[in-house]
Amino acid sequence: MLTEIQDVAGELGTQGRIGQELRDNEWLASLRGRLAVPGGSSQVDMPSYFSWQIKSPDVRMHDLHQWVKPFLPLYKGLALILRVLRDSGDVVDVMARQGAYQEMLGGKVFQLLRVWVDTALNIFPEMSANKYVIWVRFAAQDPELKPQPVTRDVAFKLARCNV
């Protein structure tokens, strides 16, 4: 783990300003300028973009990889931090009575909450938290895809993560 942290930190430290290559790319800058103008994204306004779109998928994929490459050290660093944070939590089984769960924190501080619920239940959690309390409320989508509160007891898993 320490070697991985050192490797990621080394990559981030040697890079300079992240994404500067994209800021300096005149073609991308011209597209960005046209996209900010209402109605400025037509074929007449951005012929080079529409020309690029009809190039082979291999050429476009190569370009996309080149544009993403400067962000990979940042991605690796964030992925490592999130992995460490996610792995720091103890998973506990909890019951949401009538679809709602509340826990007073009593001064404990957490940086991330994780919730797992059985996908067969076709419900999803809505969470809210502050320095005093955690609220988890479960909802299901009605036929019009609007969330409707769940009123039955729901067993789920909860992890409180902190590094």
Q: How would you characterize the overall build of this protein?
A:
It is a single chain. The chain folds into two domains: 2-81, no CATH class; 89-161, Sandwich (YacF-like). The mean pLDDT is 92. A hairpin with a 5-residue loop joins strand 5 and strand 6. Helix 1 (2-15) packs antiparallel against helix 6 (72-87). The strands form two sheets. Strands 2, 4, 5 and 6 form a four-stranded antiparallel β-sheet that branches. A three-stranded antiparallel β-sheet has the order 1-7-3, covered by helices on one side. Helix content is 39%, strand content 26%. The protein is of the alpha+beta class.
Strand-and-helix sequence, N→C?
HHHHHHEEEEEEE
Count the domains. 2
Category by helix and strand content: alpha+beta
Distance between the termini: 14 Å
Main beta sheet: 4 strands, antiparallel
Inertia-based shape: extended
Percent strand equals 25-35%
Helix content range: 25-40%
Low-confidence residue ranges: none
Name the average pLDDT.
92
Number of strands: 7
Task: Please tally the helical runs, counting DSSP H or I stretches of 4 or more residues.
Answer: 6
Instruction: Specify Rg, calculated over alpha carbons.
Output: 23 Å
